[in-house]
Amino acid sequence: MLEVRLLQGSLLKKVVEAMGELVVDANLDCSSTGVSLQAMDSSHVALVALMLRSEGFDHFRCDRSVSMGMNLANVSKLLRCSAPDDIVTLRADDDADTLTFMFESPKQDKISDFEMKLMDIQSEHLRIPEAEYQSIVRMPSQEFARICKDLSSIGDTVVISVTKEGVKFSTRGDIGNANIVCRQNTSVDKPEESTIIEMTEPVSLTFALRYMNSFTKATPLSNTVTISMSSDLPVVVEYKIAEMGYLRFYLAPKIEDEEDQS
Amino acid sequence: MLEVRLLQGSLLKKVVEAMGELVVDANLDCSSTGVSLQAMDSSHVALVALMLRSEGFDHFRCDRSVSMGMNLANVSKLLRCSAPDDIVTLRADDDADTLTFMFESPKQDKISDFEMKLMDIQSEHLRIPEAEYQSIVRMPSQEFARICKDLSSIGDTVVISVTKEGVKFSTRGDIGNANIVCRQNTSVDKPEESTIIEMTEPVSLTFALRYMNSFTKATPLSNTVTISMSSDLPVVVEYKIAEMGYLRFYLAPKIEDEEDQS
Amino acid sequence: MLEVRLLQGSLLKKVVEAMGELVVDANLDCSSTGVSLQAMDSSHVALVALMLRSEGFDHFRCDRSVSMGMNLANVSKLLRCSAPDDIVTLRADDDADTLTFMFESPKQDKISDFEMKLMDIQSEHLRIPEAEYQSIVRMPSQEFARICKDLSSIGDTVVISVTKEGVKFSTRGDIGNANIVCRQNTSVDKPEESTIIEMTEPVSLTFALRYMNSFTKATPLSNTVTISMSSDLPVVVEYKIAEMGYLRFYLAPKIEDEEDQS
């Protein structure tokens, strides 16, 4: 039997909505260590990886590992039926073909349960090796979202260049060129507003803005975002989820030639 | 001559917008007792009944009973030209083919008058007999609106079941089933947040969610809604209007067979 | 070289958005006295005139007069990439075919520059003679915007009639007639809320509401609007821009016959 309970149920809604633009169907993998999900986007370009550790739940019981296939748009529909302060419980019997979402109002005067049919989804689980990154930028997640949105009004790709002084986001399009520089800046009083750069080597990589904009749907999950880059690896855009885990997006850089053609 | 005046003019706007999704054209009936309106929705399934008693107006003069045909979308357009704190006056001469709406700002520095053409509308006035209902639920109107909206994302019909413990709203659809239970709950400090059940017999009836959602357009009129049900009668969904009257919606339950087919 | 700097950069965004509904492409004329722009709307009915005097800028350098052609939608796109409290600098080299917009956050931790390509635009500069107007109405800009919007839901044209007592806005349409009267009203405590009428002669002129509604896109620029009318001249609808200048819209009145036909 699976039964997991989260007092801060609105977190689940944010997690599912953060993935919804990229992922249509996916398996939710539950085991004694926690709940995780891994999926490629529909065009097989970006990878999404979610981890919610069991310790982060207010109650966590998972008798045996199970993989539950679901359509994320449907999950989103159900979770949108919960109020922001509802307690959320997910429950499934062993070998069941349904997953039940229960929402309880804090005063227990309204209790909703939604029984959702599960699906069989073929998926391969990629092993993502831990890597050392040449440049790691931690910055306010809203600032990153704003920059991706602003540059999209001008061009299709963004060049992210990291030096010790700061991180530069550049694009060009029919109407002109744009450069946005965020300087390293370690505000001590509001650490979530600081931009911090850790680097062993400067990096400059090009990405499709369309994907970056999809990643920023995770902005409500965390005040900060971490962007890890190496010249020969996919970028990792990571949003930490409270004390529980993370939502990570992986995207391969565009080869320079491709960018020039676009 | 007809001349009625309402200091809290925004109430009229709410009343007209509450009916606008169901009723296209209707006769506004004015007599010395007040202003009333009765209309079927365009598919002749639901009935809307409005009553605004003369005592509720700040000034009320109606020399002889008159029935004025109007298009509610046009009335809504005019009322949307009033500010939230405007004083609203309706005025019509005897046998006039127009109705004048006057809006006065509280400081009297802006005065608008709109003369609207009246229409001839054939309508039969149904006599709605007073009835004893087996179950009457009074609950927060926003909660009811939220439940109807949430269930609509899953199914087309709602089963409303009342027992002494509470009221249950259920639906099913392609993605699964849903049950939302509101427990009887008599918060003394905030009576408008309580859910109160009066029943002589448990009832369980099925309704089209589409209509229920249209009824909830009346939510801004009142903090609470009253749902009166008997197994052999149309449900009455009633929104009280301040000290003046009510807006009631009547809808026949679906026969079980129909629901199974859907 | 041209280099102008404005601490209150959001003002430029408002100016460009105020003109954007009427003007597609236009020349921005810069000289030592300031920045100005004059353009007809695409149907050559209304004229827009902008003036931002050099004293109003926090830094102003314009070595020689220059006329820079630009697409206002593109300028709007770029300015939307600035934050409300950004400092905005425009810079162009002599004979350059680009104009650079630089946005600096107040803490200087984010610096964006956008290089926009300029266009060649043929335009004739109209000389607008200074005139004496028979009636000048100064009123709250939001009130004027609200009235134009409200009347548009009923008719296509507005008759603006000024007398010593006040200004009346009238329209008629299929559903009926409307008259909105704003009385002269000189609230001393909040001068921006007053309606002030200066007149040598009463005036009553008819205008297309479509244009009036476009002019009111300038409402965010100023708390008040000034409407100057004479029976044989285009109306001038003017929004003052802080201590810097103005945005003026000119529109010829409709001939009575035309109005009757509509």
From TrEMBL, chains A, B, C:
Primary location class: nucleus
PROSITE patterns recorded: PCNA_1, PCNA_2
Stretches of the chain forming a coiled coil according to its record: none
Chain ranges of the Proliferating cell nuclear antigen PCNA N-terminal domain: 1-124
Record-level GO BP terms: leading strand elongation; mismatch repair; regulation of DNA replication; translesion synthesis
Subcellular location: Nucleus
Record GO cellular component, one term: PCNA complex
Lineage: superkingdom: Eukaryota
Residue ranges occupied by any Proliferating cell nuclear antigen PCNA C-terminal domain in the UniProt entry: 128-254
InterPro entries: DNA_clamp_sf (IPR046938), Pr_cel_nuc_antig (IPR000730), Pr_cel_nuc_antig_C (IPR022649), Pr_cel_nuc_antig_CS (IPR022659), Pr_cel_nuc_antig_N (IPR022648)
GO MF, one annotated term: DNA polymerase processivity factor activity
SUPFAM superfamilies: DNA clamp (SSF55979)
Keyword Phosphoprotein: no
Keyword Cytoplasm: no
Keyword annotations: DNA replication, DNA-binding, Nucleus
Annotated HAMAP family: DNApol_clamp_arch
Role noted for this protein: This protein is an auxiliary protein of DNA polymerase delta and is involved in the control of eukaryotic DNA replication by increasing the polymerase's processivity during elongation of the leading strand.
Protein family membership: Belongs to the PCNA family.
NCBIfam families according to UniProt: pcna
Protein name: DNA sliding clamp PCNA
Source organism: Acorus calamus (Sweet flag)
